[in-house]
Amino acid sequence: MRERFRVVGGAHLVGQATVVGAKNSALKLMAVALLAVGRTTLTNVPAIADVMIMAELLRRLGVGVDYDPEAGVVVLDVPERIGHRADYELVRALRASISVLGPLVARVGEADVAVPGGDAIGSRGLDLHAAGLEALGAEVHVTHGYLVATAPQGLQGADIRLDFPSVGATENVLTAAVLARGTTTIDNVAREPEIVDIAEMLQSMGARVEGAGTSRITVHGVDSLAPTRHAVVPDRIAAGTWAFAAATTRGQIEVVGGVADHLRAPLGALEQAGCDVTVTERGFCVSALGRRPRAFDVATLPYPGFPTDLQPFALTYNAVADGSAMVTENLFEARFRTVQELARLGADAQIDGHHVMTHGVELLSGAPVESSDIRSGAALVLAGLVADGETLVSGVHHIDRGYPRFEEALRALGADVTREPEDEPPFA
Ligand code: EPU
After folding, report:
1. Which residues form the Enolpyruvate transferase domain (predicted)?
2. Binding site annotation covers 331?
């Protein structure tokens, strides 16, 4: 059943919001567990739909998966013999499924992973994943919609340079290299905290990995890895969402579990725009109580630059902030679907190529809008909170993929947001 959020505008969100482990780390760490026979335990795992899909994918590879969403714990029991195929049915539901590619080639010498189709935020190729594995000695080709990588004689360390610091390609090359013979250097890698998280988990399994968090990772291959227990790094995008929620609604939110150091670019920009940002004992706090902060220019970049995943929130913020500003999207070519929906809410926003120019208005005007992905959906809910009257945000299943019980967290901060069944479309 499709659901929507009914959002009543007008609240200044005040209170605390708690973030748990990052979606974009937890899913990859589940795939990393494939590298070791035995029971690996992950803690601080978010209670989101994507974890269920990844659990199902791993089950089909022969892994025993026990997921307790309330406790935030996933136990993965990896047998000696595992499968090597990730079906289209699951990959299309969860693009992060591609992260089984590296571990499977390394462990089994073969991986058949369905090629994810283009999604709502751009075409998102796999060429860098393929080139990296080829450099390690795998044969890679695409056939009948599957990316097939084989390395029957095992992988061999190599010096690799990624043409672009892709998060997914960095992960797949890293997780393949840990069991390769000899030393691998990977240059121009992604530096996201989620990459550091994977490297730390690999180290605790016995892998020899250096340099995660910098632009060059060095891996000395080992023969085998051991299962481990690992806590997922806090979700910086969820934490950033709460920071923007405070700034956009002119409220004050303490983000418990948030790591300010992982959000230097967005928190620095909010501070310069007139918000108070303070590091607290349990996380950080953003306040815009009693004032209207200024709009600011944003250009998305790989970490530590401004994250593309927070771009829809920057747009929503600028739509009601004081002044005009430009948002530039440098990572995904089609990530501006939020703009047309914000325009329905009365935002003054124009797209020009990969830029969006906004002129802030005092208040948006409630209307029905449609989520197109996790982040745009959550950003539209925040837009509804600074709109006059009611905003109906449909496509809540997108939001559920990234934000555990979003509406409950918002209500705890004083927002009037309810989940309800979506009406059947009249022309279905
Ligand atoms: N790219 C290529 N070829 C490749 C790989 C990437 O051209 O082989 C391009 C993509 O088309 C894109 C850019 O490089 O234009 C960045 O892609 P990247 O590989 O860095 O992203 P990803 O691994 O597919 C992850 C997150 C995204 C997040 C991006 C960027 C996961 C599951 N997804 O995607 O998160 O936007 O990094 O930070 O980790 C989200 O959580 O809402 C989300 C979309």
Report:
1. 9-410
2. yes
